[in-house]
Amino acid sequence: MKYEKLRQDMIKSMKERDKERKDSISSLLDAIKKIAIDEGHRDEIDDSFVDKIVMKELKSIREMIETCPKDRIETLNAYKRRESVILEYAPKLMSEDEVIKLLNEKYNEVIKTKNKGQIMKEVMTELKGKVDGKLLNKIIEDLCK
Q: Each residue of 41-98: pLDDT tens digit?
């Protein structure tokens, strides 16, 4: 289970005195616990839930990297190190080619309608958490042209 792996890795980084890694993993665990409590399933944290939170944290740290002033090198490097730790636990996302192939195979009829909203509604049930939202949006826009 991913949640237990995160806990074990945090303990390991504490023993190794790797403060940055420990802090990154600890913040992930905190986010997972907080949202699990908020959603009312604190005792049943499954892998899909952990993946969802990891992706949310990854998106957040990437936004921090994008908005960080370029002259704040030390802060930018800290964000990038944190991103690399979070990436270790992030689920593998589908590539652009894999998404296009899947859309053309399974959702060909919906794509023919050229209704972007309807296409997104249909494909998100299967692809949520498996593909970057911005990438999916771009692909669907291209398919609707």
A: 777 888 888 888 898 899 899 999 999 898 999 999 999 999 999 999 988 888 888 8
Pull the structure tokens for residue 38. 């908020």
Is the sign of the CA dihedral 122, 125, 126, 127 positive or negative?
positive
pTM for this one? 0.73
State the Rg of the chain over Cα: 18
Q: What are phi and psi of 115, to 5 degrees?
A: -95, 100
Q: Which amino acid is at 39?
A: E
Determine the 3-state secondary structure of 43 from DSSP.
coil
| Cβ proximity of 10 and 18 under 8 Å | no
**Which has more confidence, 113 or 26?**
26
Helix 2-15 / helix 19-39 crossing angle, nearest 10 deg: 150
